Amino acid sequence: MRLFLGLDPPEALRGELAALAIGLPGARWVEAGNLHLTLRFIGEVNPAEAEDLDAELATLTAAPAPVRLQGIGTFGQGRRMNALWVGAEKDPALVHLHGAVENAVVRAGFPKETRKFLPHVTLARLKNPDRARLEGFIGAHNARAFAPFTADAVVLYRSHLTRDGAQYEVLERYPMRS
Ligand code: 3AM
């Protein structure tokens, strides 16, 4: 199965984010129920690896972290632009939480993540987006601050790749404790 670890924004905030999903040709919007902030992509694992991961995550110690979403960004350049997201402030507690999760994943036997942590919630996958509309979208929402929330659990998601895009299933929640 294909796994990743993340944070799930409260339902009301997911609703607000999902309400941004208008007027952008070339965007395939993430459904409200699938919106998340990825802490660590794991990938395909076998049952034994999943068990090792679960055992390490169960011992996770980190304080609850504030998550403040603000600022619209994209991944990929030009015609390769492939994702539209809202960024999260790099609060020290969130950075610490990310580090604790990374350590647990490495202790479970997975390779270290080499890419730097850029906390974000992906709003849409992009395919040849209309540039003017995209700039309009960014201009309209870039300065907007969403209601902050406290991440008090790390969520283990299973990703189901379907013809209609990925669907994410919550397998486990690991509550924060310091
Ligand atoms: O949080 P977002 O939606 O930006 O892009 C994938 C998604 O990120 C990312 O993991 C999240 C859940 O699928 N992802 C998918 N494959 C990946 C890979 N091979 C990956 N991240 C890193 N390496």
Automatic annotation (TrEMBL):
Molecular function per GO: 2',3'-cyclic-nucleotide 3'-phosphodiesterase activity; ligase activity; RNA 2',3'-cyclic 3'-phosphodiesterase activity
Reactions catalysed: a 3'-end 2',3'-cyclophospho-ribonucleotide-RNA + H2O = a 3'-end 2'-phospho-ribonucleotide-RNA + H(+)
Transmembrane segments: none
Motif (HXTX 2): 120-123
Residues annotated as the enzyme's active site: 36 (proton donor), 120 (proton acceptor)
Domain of life, source organism: Bacteria
Alphabetized UniProt keyword annotations: Hydrolase, Ligase
Keyword flag Iron: no
Keyword Ligase included in the entry's annotation: yes
E.C. code: 3.1.4.58
Motif HXTX 1 per record, residues: 36-39
UniProt-listed NCBIfam families: 2_5_ligase
Family: Belongs to the 2H phosphoesterase superfamily. ThpR family.
Function according to Swiss-Prot or TrEMBL: Hydrolyzes RNA 2',3'-cyclic phosphodiester to an RNA 2'-phosphomonoester.
Protein name: RNA 2',3'-cyclic phosphodiesterase
Species this chain originates from: Rhodospira trueperi
